[in-house]
């Protein structure tokens, strides 16, 4: 369930565009107005505002925001104003072609999305950056990690709840034979099953594996695989089961200890606000016995803090 708070009576997109233009005028930017408008409009409404702004002022609102805002507030806002596919494509491009290659972020984005989301994201990546996502992955990755990313992007999967019990049993048995039962690991079996299975089928495999071999499939992955390949498999499995629990853990890791991983905090906040942030907040509270909003409040400041809390939602 989304956490986005939208006014019961919306301002027309043209009026929002005018208000934003006024916020940019003069010395400095009225960041409060910018946040009050854009943090409380859904994806379709934001797209209309961008369209109206360009029609009225012959300027791209995205680029105007980039010149008016700064720091983490700017980074978060520039992702937020994009549509979901454009946002994922931008995160991937930055992870694969930025100053520092971030393969874990690229793996997380790919392995946590549904087949339909991936198809739209690939098309958007090609249109926005002029090259195929698969090409950039091939250039930046290798081995089994590369194989699972390319297969997960390319293999069609059912998104429904249907499960074939006999196929589940066979796949659980094959994973056991490919891992714990033998010396070494047959990575090809793990790649095939994890990239061809629907989320419902994979969850059923994990349950059958536990029942048949008295060991969790997740523990098997941790003992039989390593590195980014292991991270990809675990991300697929965890997001098949409970995506909200997965992202609650990402947020917790981003904010625990000294310093904050603002990139991870921004990535999850802006990509999940319109998807399942209320569930993520509940999972965070259940797991870590604290409030996600309070954690964000303590780890951030200023306009950046206000913007993230507007998306995630303050505790009432």
From TrEMBL:
GO BP of this protein: response to cold; response to heat; response to salt stress; response to water deprivation
Entry GO MF terms: calcium ion binding; calcium-dependent phospholipid binding; phosphatidylserine binding
One Gene Ontology term, aspect cellular component: plasma membrane
Domain of life according to the entry: Eukaryota
Gene3D superfamilies named among the record's database cross-references: Annexin
Listed SMART domains: ANX (SM00335)
Stored Pfam families: Annexin
Classification via InterPro entries: Annexin, Annexin_repeat, Annexin_sf
Keywords: Annexin, Calcium, Calcium/phospholipid-binding, Metal-binding, Repeat
Protein name as annotated: Annexin
